[in-house]
Write a structure and sequence with these properties.
By secondary structure, this protein is of the alpha+beta class. The strands form two sheets. A four-stranded mixed β-sheet has the order 4-1-7-8, with no helix packed on it.
Length: 123
Amino acid sequence: MNKKTSFLGVILILALGLFLFSISQKDAITLNIINSTKEEINSLELRYNDLLVGNFDLKAESKKQMSVESSLIKTEGSLSIFYKDKKGNIQKIVAIGYISPGQKVSSTITIVNIDENGILKIK
């Protein structure tokens, strides 16, 4: 093997490593939301700080996985779910209280009850 071939081999290995690393870092934050109630829950918003990451509904007794790409995580912050109760008031559930750039986090929230005012109870 000559020096050119060895050099090209090293470059290819480094490029492959960088590519695999970038793929593994795409979804930095993963949130699993489980609706264990017998009611459908509509118009939920997932936000990273003030940035809307996604809107979603949850069917009764279902689960949903939401992800936030690492490219969106520019500063320290938190991940929250927003929704309106039966009176139209905006409610907030802090799903992940602290996230920083480069961090990879996974969490699960289970909605166990919806009270008479439409407030979600979680565990």
